Amino acid sequence: ETGVTQSPTHLIKTRGQQVTLRCSSQSGHNTVSWYQQALGQGPQFIFQYYREEENGRGNFPPRFSGLQFPNYSSELNVNALELDDSALYLCASSSQGAPNEKLFFGSGTQLSVL
Amino acid sequence: DQQVKQNSPSLSVQEGRISILNCDYTNSMFDYFLWYKKYPAEGPTFLISISSIKDKNEDGRFTVFLNKSAKHLSLHIVPSQPGDSAVYFCAASIYYGNNRLAFGKGNQVVVIP
């Protein structure tokens, strides 16, 4: 059974650029959630995908968008990068409706925006 | 708007002693609470949870207490071990299968051998 994997592990971009982060969900999971963890803060919910559609969104602007693919893997896209987008981006997978304890996180992608 | 608050960002404790981490929340809709543990370069991993219908849940060395009227919960680790050195996050959800968690800022725990 493979866990949640994210790529790349580290990324450096400049302000105004666009970035795509990738996540492979744990085997058997059909729901993917994305979180942003800024330095010194806890993870903040960005959005969740289920059946290839957005299924709930946190307080993030539209330049944060995502995709879920038929194999349940997912992408997080951020357009027009800002300095404040520098953070650890965490992907978590689960089965829809499963208890919160069954939410499994990847190790994250550390994004630095210069 | 921080709906889950963890004060005292860091805690140092001697091995074998008790570690107590506190968490407060503001949203009355929260119905389910979890603690996560995070090591550097790893994602958060689930530690223990509690439903709002309970006031205590115990799992080995870890106990979580919930005071719903005060909107306060705490995590007790006893005895603390060096492997417990990590960042601990308190998280809350509006129901147990929601998977959309609101996290606190975390507490750095250092257990001194």
Explain what you see.
The complex is a heterodimer of chains A (114) and B (113). Chain A has 114 residues and is mainly beta. Chain A has strands at 5-7, 10-13, 19-24, 31-37, 44-50, 53-57, 64-68, 74-78, 87-94, 104-105, 109-113. In chain A, the strands form two sheets. In chain A, strands 2, 4, 5, 6, 9, 10 and 11 form a seven-stranded mixed beta sheet that branches. In chain A, strands 1-3-8-7 form a four-stranded antiparallel beta sheet, with no helix packed on it. With 113 residues, chain B is an all-beta fold. In chain B, 0% of the residues lie in helices and 53% in strands. Chain B has no helices and eleven strands. In chain B, strands 2, 4, 5, 9, 10 and 11 form a six-stranded mixed beta sheet that branches. A five-stranded antiparallel beta sheet of chain B has the order 1-3-8-7-6, with no helix packed on it. In chain B, strand 7 (62-67) and strand 8 (72-77) form a beta hairpin. Classes of the chains: A mainly beta (114), B mainly beta (113). The interface between A and B is medium-sized, with 27 and 25 residues.
